[in-house]
Structure formats: C-alpha cells, structure tokens
Amino acid sequence: MRKSICFFSFFAFTVLSFYACQKDSPIADNLIETDETGYANVPSNMWSLFQRFEEEALERGYQIDLKTQEISAEISEISEEGVAGSCTYGSHDPGHIVIDQTFWNQASDLLKEMVIFHELGHCSLFRGHTEGSHPNGTCLSIMRSGLEDCNDNYRVSTRETYLDELFENADL
Ligand SMILES: [Zn+2]
Questions:
Q1: How far is the CA of 32 from the centre of ligand 1 (A)?
Q2: pLDDT at res. 10
Q3: How many domains does the chain have?
Q4: Which of 24, 29, 72, 94 is deepest in the core (most CB within 10 A)?
Q5: Distances (CA, A) of 109 to 31, 104, 115, 117
Q6: How many Cβ atoms sit within 10 Å of the Cβ of residue 158?
C-alpha cells in the first residue's frame, strides 16, 4: 500500500475546519527522542493524549498499544496555511503525526484531542474518512474529510458519541 498523508487544517484555527489529503508526500524526519518510560519518538507533552486514546479504546473493548504500533509524532511549524496536523501512514510502516506548533500553543485540550484522535484514527485504527452530517448539520464523525459540508461539534457533551463512532468503525 502506498503511503498517504492527511492534513488537518482549520481556518484561523477556529472550529470550522478543512482537510486536504495527498498521496506520497514527503515525510518529516526530525523526530524527538524520549525516554523509555513514555512513547518513543513522541513529545512528552503529547503522551497524556496518546494514553487517553488507549484508555478510550479499552473502555470500548479494543486493546490498542500505540507503543507496539510504533507511532511517532512531533510538534513543529507546518508551513501550509492553517494546517493543524497531519498523519503519514501506510499498511506496512508505522504512522507519523505532525502537529503544528502554533496550533498546539493555542488550542484547548479538547481541540488537541480531536486533532490527535483524528490522526490516530488513520495511523492506529487504519480508518479512512467518513463523510455525512446529522439533520442539524453537525458531522457524523471526527473522521470527516472536511471536503464536504458538515460542522464540527466535538464538545464535552458530544465527545462520548464521537468516540463510540471512532472506535466502532476501526479497521483492525
Ligand atoms: Zn484525515
């Protein structure tokens, strides 16, 4: 399988968002080394979100081990305008996530979670994008591409439903 990269972008880092995906994009290679108690090659300030992803999976009956999957991540400036994160993944290589430094500095914990969980949806759960909206216009899934018209509605009150959908449709 060829490598894919998905950019997760926000217009001015608001909740309105847009994704664009390309094939065979170059992979950033400036990984950050970490000690062996955490997730190797993942910045330590992202570990709690990685751990939360594994815990949310386990609550739903899925044993996900991001260390075994060797998913790496970095926080660095992404030059494309308004892009919050990207994930490069393929069936034979461990996924690599890049989160934009400016986004990381500004985003709430919930917004960081949505972006990282979306990227882990690709890299760890091997999901593609899921389009569609509820009758009120809100997105069916945080795995929406952003190329179709739906509104993000990831908040404390809707989070559990979105996470149910995320893990239920894992391609493991
Ligand atoms: Zn995506």
A1: 23
A2: 56
A3: 1
A4: 72
A5: 23, 9, 10, 12
A6: 14
Per-residue CA distances from 42 to 36, 48, 93, 103, 142 (Å): 11, 11, 16, 17, 22
Q: How many CB atoms lie within 10 A of CB 2?
A: 7
Residue 116 in tokens: 């990282």
The alpha carbon of 136 and the centre of ligand 1 are apart by a number of angstroms equal to 22
Backbone angles phi, psi at 53, to 5 degrees: -60, -45
Nearest CA-CA partner of 98 in 28, 25, 20, 151: 28
Host domain of residue 107: 4-168
**CA 144 to centroid of ligand 1, rounded, Å:** 7
Report the separation in Å between the CA atom of 88 and the middle of ligand 1, taken as the mean of its atom positions: 10
Residue 134 sits in a domain whose CATH number is: 3.40.390
49-107 pLDDT tens trace? 999 999 999 999 999 999 999 999 999 999 887 788 888 887 678 899 999 999 999 99
3-state secondary structure of 22: strand
User: Which residues have C-beta under 5 Å from ligand 1, the single-atom ion?
Assistant: 6
